[in-house]
Amino acid sequence: MKGLTQFIVDIRNTHDQQEEKKRINVEVNNIQLKFNSGLNDYQRRKYISKIVYIYLLGYDHLIEFGTKECLQLLMNNKVPEKQLGYLYLSVMIQNKGDNEQYVNEIFGLTFNQLKNDLNNKNEDINTIAIQFISNNLILDYKFQQGSPNSNDFIELIETLYSMVISPVNSILIKKKAIVGLKNLILMYPQILDDNNWIPRLLNLIDNNQDLSIILNSTKLIEILITLKPNYIYSIIPSITKNLNDLIIENTCPKEFYYYLIPSPWLIIKLFKLLEHCFLLSNNQLMIDDANLNNLRQIVAKTIQMSSKPIKGLPNRNSQNSILFQAVSIAVFLQASDEAITGAINALIDLLVTHDTNTRYLSLDVLIKLIGRSNNSSSSNNSSNLIYSNLKTILGLLNDRDISIKRKTLDLIYIITNEENYQNIINKLIDYYPQCDIQLKSELSIKIAVLSENFAQDSNWYVNIMIKLISIPTTNEILNNEIWERICQILINNHDLHKSTTKLIISKLAKLIKGGEAISNNLIKLSSFIIGEFGPLVKEDYSPASQFNLLFECYSKVNLISRSMILSSFMKMLVNYPDEDFVPNIVDLFELELYSLDLEIQTRANEYLKLFTTNNLHLHKPLPPFESTENHLLSRIGNVDKIVSGFVNKKKIQQSKSTDDDPFGDEAVPEETYPLSPNWYNGYVRMLNFNAGIFFENQLVKITYKITRDGFNLSYKFTIINNSYKVSKNNLTNFKVLDLKSLTNSVNPSYLMNIHSLPEQLITDKSTLEMSVKIRSVVEIEEPTIISLTFNVGGSFNQLNLKIPINLIKTLSPTGLKMDEFKNRWMQINQLLPNNTGEHIINTNTSIRYNSSNIIRLLQRLGFSIVYENTEGILILGAGIIQCQNSKYGCLVSVKSSQDIGKQFEIIIKCTGGGVSQIIASTIDEIFQSGF
Amino acid sequence: MSIKFLILISRQGKVRLTKWYTTTTQKTKSKITKDLTTLILSRRAKMCNIVEYQDMKIIYRRYASLFFVIGIDNDDNELMGLEIIHRYVEQMDKAYGKVSELDIIFGFEKAYYVLDELLLDGKVQESSKKEVLKRVLNQDDLEGSEEFDVLIN
Predict the structure, then answer these.
(1) d(CA B143, nearest CA chain A) in Å
(2) Around Cβ A438, how many Cβ atoms within 10 Å?
(3) For a pLDDT cut of 70, what percent of chain A falls above it?
(4) B22 chain-A contacts, CB cut-off 8 A
(5) Which residue on chain B is closest to A58 by alpha carbon?
(6) What is the rounded distance in angstroms from the CA atom of residue A276 to the CA atom of residue A297?
(7) Are A200 and A796 in contact (CB under 8 A)?
(8) Which residue, among A424, A432, A339, A348, has the nearest Cα to A385 in the 3D structure?
(9) Whether CATH 2.60.40.1230 fits A679-805
(10) Angle A289-A294-A296 (CA atoms, 0-180°, nearest 5)?
(11) What is the 3-state secondary structure (H, E, C) of chain B?
């Protein structure tokens, strides 16, 4: 476009801002005129291009027109026209995105066009539209249901979702749609509550057709698991597998190699996703042994690889970035101390390399490594290990690069502990005078906070602080917080008053005598201390000498310090009304009435009035300082941020629940899965038998076997591919999506642990093993729901099944004689009043049972039979329920009532309150369903 | 890895290309651009390529007369950011055939196009060099046919 090129050349040739502005104004007028007369396609493109260019130059206020022309461009079916139209829109939205009304307006105008373009048969047009969504619709506010465009908006999300999961779309479309979908979900997270999308979306990470799909889906998955943390568990195997391929196998499709390294970007993203999983679950992530070992191997391999030299800067950079990322998750893998030590040593070696970036990042990772160690002993070990290299680290404080110096300070800050604080603080104070000006304030704050945190001797603290603030600096205003903080601490600690005052007076006297420069901060602190606590030391230092010290300094310090000295003089007038120096003070006040500085003038005037009108009694002693907050901490820098990582749950969840939530995160509304049809048979079978079929349909059969050992139960599920016999299909992407235990999460009645997960690809069969530890009484409403997802052929399947985690499984037989039984039977009623130890149920069965049936059942459940009579049916049994926290005796009596063999009265007695009811209803359930 | 913005600054301090992946007002944009220009131009050659600025990290790298500057989150992987810049330059090199500053000034739409294929929403969407080039060539074809249409009409 010639006109556009000419316009750019013109602007480049302008000599100053004025001329440029003039040229642009001319052009804006011109464009406006042209828009009012008719335009052909070419002209429209040219002028819109010019508008965009003007906009990009920063003259955004000039342009309030062009939307209409832009819409016409969008309606055109040629790709370049559309592209320009979307470019115009994106530039506008990028600049006015914070204006909700504007965005809504634009959205309303363009929605139909956007929808058409997404559904267009031309892939190029699809990509432009998706690209527009992905790049621009990342706005800070949430879309509310019921807002004018909300239906359209939901339709848009649904369109993108179907593009993502559609099997026919090309990879190009899919990968872009994933990013777009992610943005839209962020703006309207409720959509996930209304639809069961997550399982399918999580499958994106298993995509083995093309790495770029995985690359693009990591962020989406990160958001999904942040919104629904219960899915975290299900993606770990997939992450591990992908990392395993890239790092242990060290391969990927050829075009994804970056120089010699297989897709470093993907590796980093996967590591980050993993890190996010750990941070989200507060270090309580359940990982089965196989995957945990695999992950440890991956980290070990990365550390090992990094020690091998590799040629070329891009290779080195990629390799190091992978190392840094791997080390920052090493802490979460409960790695052994040796592994951590190895990692730290490797990093310390890197601290002295020539490459500045590597030095910087090694520091960064060391900080993370220490900050994230979850228990204090291992973090102390690591700190000490680094501390033993303190010399190397202090050397870095003299690096040429300020970024490195700053990071080094952060590292030193974080390795400080009770054992080494004195040495470190002294070293830092020594370093202070030669420190860069930009870093001084940060350094002094770090020293102050460290001293306050670790000081065990308050005199030591005061000493260090006075040492710190006596160092003259140029940007003192920044450091007001420090002497203020010292004052706050002094006021509250009476035992410090006297010694500190002595110390500061002698320090000041020495400085004045030696004619050395006195820092303003020291003066501020001294004038405060002498004014407040001077009378405490008047035996050692006469009031006159105290006055002389401050008076001498008065002319040498800046205005703010002077006004503070005036205040302490006023306090002296109150404390020593009869001293010789009183006239001097009054003279000074009178003199300062003519000061040019408003603050000094005001103070002088008011203090003089108080004195001349004899109102000095208005002066009151300082009240104790009450705020417990330490303002210094807010200025400590970014150490905490590094440590806590990037989990910003709140930001994403903002719109989720607006009502106040007394239990915080725990009470996020639980999702209830609709259970799969036919779940009940397997559920009851599991109550009754210790092995059998848990679930079966045309595609899969799941069998189970339970091994009981007191309160430790282990479950072994075998997943058998049923479809293989019929259609030779494999089960692919087999995942345990969720294992949701409905037990109370604060004090769970049982703990689950998965030992091995089934293979993702099941041709014949695979096993899932888990163990359960029963801690205390498990209520009937606390079973576990397991969700499994898998693909067969092209179809996506999800199974939600209930696993009974039941108290009755901990029952073990106990040999009891008849008379003992009788005694216990009576005892329970006395022990637990109001029949809480006893529960009676009457149950009808559909089939007739004889006593041997029932004896077999009771023995299978874990009762020993104490008594049986064969006519009529009466069976007594006894057993012990073992939880980790307690044991309960359990007695049972099954008696057939009127209709023999079909109607039973079952009495359960238990030594624990409420336990009998649980056992009774379990047994009732078994009777009802037939056994 | 989330890139907040990419700015190309010439050694004279002129901005050659910008791309923002977050909604930012023009005012903050110009402030950041101005700050970074002074900050980065004043750094010496051997210093590290990472600077902390506000609550983000700035990664920059110099190619001939141009500084490529990106802003990333504090917790992002810096070296990877550096390599993203490198990949972008490599790809532009291929797309333009020996890229120079002037190429970017006059053919900025192509620079944006390469960028859009490499990054989406501030994240690497395609690390395969071949794929990006294919898309860019495709785009060239489309532009070409358009010019052709204009000639016929």
Answers:
(1) 7
(2) 11
(3) 91
(4) 138
(5) B26
(6) 19
(7) yes
(8) A348
(9) yes
(10) 95
(11) CCEEEEEEEECCCCEEEEEECCCCCHHHHHHHHHHHHHHHHCCCCCCCCEEEECCEEEEEEEECCEEEEEEEECCCCHHHHHHHHHHHHHHHHHHHHCCCHHHHHHCHHHHHHHHHHHEECCEECCCCHHHHHHHHHHHHHHHHHHHHHHHHC
The answer to whether domain A808-929 has CATH 3.30.310.10 is yes
A302 — phi, psi (to 5°)? -65, -45
Whether A326 and A299 have beta carbons less than 8 Å apart is answered as: yes
For residue A507, is pLDDT > 50? yes
SS (H, E, C) A711-778: CEEEEEEEEEECHHHHHCCCEEEEEEEEEEECCCCCCCCEEEEEEECCCCCECCEEEEEEEEEECCCC
Burial B94-111 (b: 16+ CB within 10 A, else e): bbbeebebebbbeebbbb
Of the candidate ranges A19-23, A83-87, A481-485, A743-747, the one whose mean pLDDT is the lowest: A743-747
pLDDT beneath 70, residues of chain B: 1, 145-153
Query: In the prediction, which pLDDT does A634 show?
Result: 63
CB contact under 8 A, B52 and A406: yes
Cα A824 off chain centre by = 54
Q: Nearest Cα to A802, choosing from A876, A694, A645?
A: A694
Tell me the pLDDT tens digit for each residue of A49-80: 888 888 877 777 777 778 888 888 888 888 88
Q: Are the C-beta atoms of A716 and A704 separated by less than 8 Å?
A: yes
d(CA A808, CA A643): 45
Are the C-beta atoms of residues A844 and A854 closer than 8 Å to each other? no
Quote the domain boundaries for residue B87: 3-152
Between chain A and chain B, how many beta carbons pairs sit less than 8 Å apart? 154
Residues A833-890 have pLDDT tens digits of 777 778 888 888 888 888 888 888 888 888 888 888 867 788 889 999 888 888 888 8
- What one-character DSSP code corresponds to residue A665? G
pLDDT at B71: 93
Of A281, A303, A285, residue with least CA distance to A237: A285
Overall number of domains in chain B: 1
The tokens for B17 are: 């290309």
Q: What is the CATH number of the domain that holds B48?
A: 3.30.450.60
**Å between B140 CA and nearest CA of chain A:** 10
Q: Does ipTM come in above 0.85? A: no
Return the structure tokens found at B25: 């007002």
Instruction: Give the side-chain half-sphere CA count within 13 A for B22.
Output: 16
Give tens-digit pLDDT for A705-749. Answer: 998 888 888 999 999 988 887 788 888 888 888 777 777 667 778
Q: Pick the closest to residue B114 from B101, B102, B131 (CA basis).
A: B131
Owner of token pair 């832009």? A70
Nearest to A70 by CA among A39, A97, A29: A39
Q: CA–CA distance from A780 to each of A528, A860, A886, A922, B20 (Å)? A: 68, 20, 18, 8, 55
CB-based contact A445:A486 (threshold 8 Å) = no
State the average pLDDT for chain A. Answer: 82
Q: How far is CA A670 from the centre of its chain?
A: 20
| A860, A689 Cβ separation under 8 angstroms | yes
- SS3 label, residue A800: strand
Q: Which residues numbered 94-133 in B keep a CB inside 8 Å of some CB on A? A: 105-106, 116, 120-121, 123-131
Q: How is domain A416-631 classified at the architecture level of CATH? A: Alpha Horseshoe (1.25)
Q: Report DSSP letters for A847-902, one per residue.
A: S---HHHHHHHHHHHTPEEEEEETTTTEEEEEEEEE-SS-EEEEEEEEEE-SSTTT
User: What pLDDT, on a 0 to 100 scale, did the predictor assign at position A667?
Assistant: 38
- Residue A384 predicted with pLDDT over 90: no
Would you say A295 and A240 are in contact if contact means Cβ atoms under 8 Å apart? yes
Any CB–CB contact under 8 A between B54 and chain A?
no
